[in-house]
Specification:
Oligomer: single chain
Shape: elongated
CATH superfamily of the largest domain: Nucleoside diphosphate kinase-like domain
CATH class of the largest domain: Alpha Beta
Strand content: 5-15%
Number of domains: 2
CATH topology of the largest domain: Alpha-Beta Plaits
Length: 246
């Protein structure tokens, strides 16, 4: 399903280029429905980005995003999320210069750690973020088409989106962060690293070794151990011996 709405942010540090960035967005055929200047605080950044940014870099990201004024916009256009992503270009400035020299990041980015813009990644994100920033879910963001035009699974998706819109209205935004994004930004990086280590080491009891790897390298542990666990550090559990009854 194509998305026609999204939230976009011109990040702090680009005040001198606000006009050029906004003009470029409009020139690309994207409509700006709402726009305002604002300065984020820590709580607002937590609600928008806490589960979307890797935890090891989140403190620096939060400090940067609260360091000065930003511009937030509700954008409208066909496949606007993909279109806007193409306009912004790769986050890494060197890659942007090579692969997309006319992108916003290639033209204006201060560094790889400070992209020019951020934006919604899907329709559910757009509903959450527009509601949080501008205070209401626009009715037009929910497709209003006849049931006959959709397959059953598509109708289920539409109902889910509409229910999400109703849930977010007037409620605590942080409670409705997408589960997939939460897992991808917290659990999956370490799980994938552990699976890669298991494939390399091939321990006799891979499940127990994976569990120990996750526990020892848990980034949320206040006393994180830097070195990954080695195979010899984990001893396989010994079977419980049963004495022969007389």
């Amino acid at each position: 399903m194509s998305c026609t709405r999204m939230l976009a942010i011109i990040n702090p540090g680009y005040e001198d280029n606000w006009g050029k960035i906004i003009d470029r967005i409009i020139e690309e055929g994207i409509s700006i429905l709402q726009m305002k200047k604002m300065t984020f605080d820590d709580e607002m950044i937590d609600k928008l980005f806490y589960y979307k940014i890797p935890q090891n870099s989140y403190p620096l990201f939060q400090a940067w995003m609260t360091s000065g004024p930003a511009v937030v916009m509700e954008l409208d256009g066909k496949d606007v999320i993909y279109h806007f992503s193409d306009i912004v270009g790769p986050a890494h400035k060197d890659i942007a210069l090579e692969q997309a020299p006319n992108s916003l990041n290639a033209l204006y980015s201060n560094s790889t750690a400070e992209p020019v813009c951020l934006g919604s990644i899907n329709l559910e994100n757009a509903i959450e973020e527009i509601t949080f920033i501008f205070g209401s879910v626009p009715e037009e963001i929910i497709p209003k088409l006849e049931s006959a035009e959709f397959e059953e699974d598509e109708l289920d998706e539409l109902n889910t989106i509409e229910n999400l819109a109703n849930q977010y209205e007037g409620k605590d935004y942080s409670r409705y962060v997408l589960k997939q994004e939460y897992l991808e930004s917290t659990v999956m990086p370490l799980v994938l690293e552990g699976l890669s280590w298991i494939m390399k080491e091939r321990p006799k009891d891979p499940v127990e070794h994976l569990a120990m790897f996750l526990l020892k390298n848990n980034t949320f542990n206040k006393q994180k151990l830097a070195d990954p666990i080695q195979p010899e550090e984990v001893k396989a559990p010994q079977p419980t011996s049963s004495k022969k009854r007389d």
